[in-house]
Protein: Protein-export membrane protein SecG
Amino acid sequence: MSTVLLVILLIISVIMTGLILIQRSEGGALGIGGGGGGGNGFMSGRAATTSVARMTAILGTIFLVLSLLLSVVFALENQNTGALDNVDNEVDGLTSPAESSDEILPLEETPAIPADPTDTDE
Structure:
């Protein structure tokens, strides 16, 4: 469920970014569609501005509602999981004895290393 909502939120954010960029620029900012189109364009003049602004407002509202809904869904999905729930499983794997083919000698049986490597008993 959360993956579907996340994909829908991503699609809406991309569409909303495009709508914001094609809006007519009021102060000479980043608007792409700010040029005077006369009457020859597909949507020109006041009707285009009104419809783009209306679609931006609708998609902005849907974006906010989906964001809130997504946070609720994530909270419900992760309700019974905590940071310390899996600690015992991880520690068991870390503290288990390692399998080794090398024989480990007890401390009493280890050969003594001379303090001075140049000093040899000959």
